[in-house]
Write a structure and sequence with these properties.
An 8-stranded mixed β-sheet has the order 3-2-4-1-5-6-7-8, sandwiched between helices. Helix 4 crosses helix 5. It has 12 helices and 8 strands. It has helices at about 5-10, 10-30, 35-45, 50-65, 70-85, 115-125, 140-155, 165-180, 195-215, 235-245, 265-270, 290-300; strands at about 100-105, 130-135, 160, 185-190, 220-225, 250-255, 275-280, 285-290.
Length: about 300
């Protein structure tokens, strides 16, 4: 299956809700066109504020463009929505960056954070990069065990300690091992106890400190993993984590299980943070690098 086809299939529930309605609407051009378009976008969880901005932009563009054919108008809508995603190249695509690159995985429990950590390891290893995993979610024995299984499956080393151990100690050991072995990436899974923000903030700050001390030249990417099926509620999780840590990228999981994939637009627009990956299935290769244009085109067009 090609990359584009995999995205379309993974976003099928959102496509079924949006694409057919959008294409039909653009060719009908009913008197209530703009209001109906706004309602379609809101139904896909783009959010009322962002949906209104998008529709008002289209209205203004059409007034200034004569004649504005349905094809041109739809193309402009695609361009507008794609531009809402910040264009920030990921650090792993920079060949000149110092090694190891450190990825800190954050997010509340239940979003698929540990699974995403394993899938990322599989993706990067498949690209020929050397990887080590750190099981710093020491408050959940299941998370440690799950990451160890990923390591065994992928033949990737996993740094871990007993449940209840100091997460910063695990992070330190992971980065130290990555440096000693000359590895490309250290991916560290962290705890997700958002309900206790003070403890989590202190924990992430401590992890950040030990990583900076052990690998001062290494770039650090903090990836927030969000469950797309909770729709607009993901925005409040993003807001809360932004108060705790300098989130630099987003990963949206379970997009194949929701018709509200438009929440990706709302999330990217919220704090101008790039979406790095989307999860569209349970297999390791169902974690896909995010492409704003392909994503928007996939949910707006049936073809």
């Amino acid at each position: 299956m090609g990359f584009l086809e995999k995205i379309r299939q993974g976003l099928q529930k959102t496509r079924d809700k949006v694409a057919r309605s959008v294409e039909s609407l653009f060719h009908r051009r009913d008197p209530g066109f703009y209001q109906e378009l706004e309602e379609i976008l809101i139904s896909a969880d783009v959010g009322p504020i962002v949906a209104k901005e998008i529709v008002e932009d289209l209205r203004s563009w059409e007034k200034a463009t004569s004649p504005a054919s349905p094809a041109l108008s739809l193309a402009h809508l695609e361009e507008t929505m794609s531009a809402l995603f910040p264009d920030v190249p990921p650090p792993w695509e920079d060949p000149a960056r110092p090694a190891p690159l450190v990825l800190l995985m954050v997010g509340v429990n239940g979003v698929g954070k540990t699974t995403t950590t394993g899938k990322l390891a599989a993706r990067f290893k498949g690209e020929g990069k050397s990887v080590i995993l750190g099981a710093a979610d020491t408050f959940r024995a299941a998370a440690i065990e799950q990451l160890i299984k990923w390591g065994e499956r992928l033949d990737v080393p996993v740094v871990h300690q007993k449940p209840g151990a100091d997460p910063a100690s695990v992070a330190f050991d992971t980065v130290k091992a990555a440096r000693a072995r000359g590895l490309d990436l250290a991916i560290i899974d962290t705890a997700g106890r958002l309900q206790n923000k003070q403890n989590l903030m202190a924990e992430l700050k401590k992890i950040g400190s030990v990583v900076s001390r052990e690998a001062p030249d290494s770039p650090v990417e903090i990836l927030l993993v969000l469950d797309a099926t909770i729709g607009q509620n993901a925005l409040s999780q993003l807001d809360e984590f932004m108060k705790i840590a300098p989130i630099s990228g987003l990963v949206l999981t379970k997009l194949d299980g929701t018709s509200k994939g438009g929440v990706a637009v709302a999330l990217a627009r919220r704090h101008r943070i790039p979406v790095r990956f989307i999860g569209v299935g349970e297999k390791a290769d169902d974690l896909l690098p995010f492409d704003p244009r392909l994503f928007v085109r996939s949910i707006l067009r049936q073809e």
